[in-house]
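Researcher: Please predict.
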Amino acid sequence: LSSIILSGPPGTGKTTLARIIANTTKSAFIALNAVLSGVGELREAIEKAKTHIELYSRKTILFVDEVHRWNKSQQDALLPWVENGTVVLIGATTENPFFEVNRALVSRSRVFLLRSLDSQDLLGVARMTLSDRDRGYGNYKVAFEPGALEHLVATADGDARSLLNALELAVETSVDSWPPPDGSSIEVSVAVAEESIQKRVVLYDKDGDYHYDTISAFIKSLRGSDPDAALYWLARMVYAGEDPGFILRRMLISVHLSLAALYLATCPKSNSTLGYFDALKAVEAEGAEVPNHLKDASRDSAGFGHGMGYKYPHAYTDHWIAQQYLPSSMARNQFYAPGELGLEGERRTLVLNRRESQLAIKIEDVEENHAFVWSKEGESRKKWMSRAESSASSRLSLARRWFFDALAISPADRVLLIDPRKGFYCLESIRRAREGYTAVLVENREAKDQLESMTASLSDLAKPDIAVAQELNPGDWISKAFGDKVFDHLVICEARPGSFGLPFLPAALRQGRMSVHFIDFLGFPSSLLSGLLRLNLSNPDAAESQALDELAAFEIEKKASVLMEIPEGAWDLDRFRQFCASAAPELGEGQPLSSMLEYRREFDKELVKRRIGNEAKALKHAARLLTMAEKLPPTSRWPLHIAALKHQRGR
């Protein structure tokens, strides 16, 4: 075991991990608390460690809880003994070790970041406690009113210690005297649960990481034009007691006082700012952590990678890029409901469209890299990793517009969709079939909740009917979900092998004579380097054309892209048609429509040059391809191949 430092919020198991090590190691174990001990106690511990190694040849593990509470001189006193191996340090801290712990100690240790526990973890802790006969309440029949245990878990907010303290208080105050006889029944009411755990203070410090990370997230939310996230982080700071002047000064980074005053004096008024109070309620209910990419990168990006993956909006078209500014647990929350008057009314459509694009992005569309472990040797080995895919939202919006143009849905049509993107395609159908109606099958309750939230401002007649696949039988789902409704169009969006909607397709095809349409992206041709080069190089000469032809033939033969790894299952038009035919053979061949759209995306020249170099033996014109790649701008035009397969049936 080498020296380690455990960093994380309260109640995440730092001390527990140290105790587990103490109970399993053959080394001597000495525990100190930095709050209660100083250099004297440290010297005494070192003397014991020297004795252990001299007399018994045993190492000593020194556990220092709250190690950040020692000042620099106290930490310096520990350094030589860690360096010469007299002790193996296990430090625990709730602060950022890269700022609060001696850098020399950090460089000789492996740093582990412990995250707050989620609700399932806390439920597991509670159930273990209730079933443990030796250290818990396994000797009693403890029952909770509906919602009581869930309230304890939600209010504990990731802190297992807080949950256990509240659980102990709730159980032991639910009987007249403690302990009752073994086998007694104990019922914990919601009222007792609420009394046992009061609202936890939002994790926030006036001069530490949480302070700077939260204001960093707020500023980036303003810059990124995300009103929901801006209101949330503002509410979080105000709730935690932040100085309003501090917040205002940061807002003045973007808006001069005179401009703000003139705007407020002349603009049409709206009550949409009341969304602040919804954000405040969310802060009170859940103190979610600042997402890694929004944290202050100027302080410790080399350690835990704070700020890694953040996309600077001003580097993109329209100075906007879809990225998540709210904590992941609150991604579906909407605090801002834009009004319809004045400038706000003009911006309303833009705000709603951007919100739809952000919420439609799946995990596989965006890759995020988070650092949970840091070490000096790991830092030296760390390779360059590409930024998160930043163009997913623009691709989705472009494709959705083309799909619905190709389907030619009229205003009075009745449309049924199988939508894997939590209603992203359904929202466009609502706009197109504004005099008809739209129904949709989504995968799970989370998708339904998100779509209901997105359509909450619509009239009852305009709202879609939403069915949840996980709650329905594929054999009779349409009649169960939509009764006797008749549809003109069935649109199957992004159907792939294993898609949740495939088992529901046969029952849908038995309903009437509606037209059936498959729509999807063609991932294989969209990923080819040959296509990218052709799109960006105008008027290639004969030699360049020959090199491009060779590259295209090579990629097609290998069924692989020189540019990037092609996701498994990405297909071309022929494979798309074959899949649709196998999914619904009774429909026949259908009418295929395809198109190549284009969008802007970052281009890493060095990566592409390395990839071309790797294939130099197979490509006779590799040198010319390298020259062509060098001509491309950092942000290039990328091809996006998409297709629709239409089956017109009599209505």
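Model: The chain has a mean pLDDT of 82.
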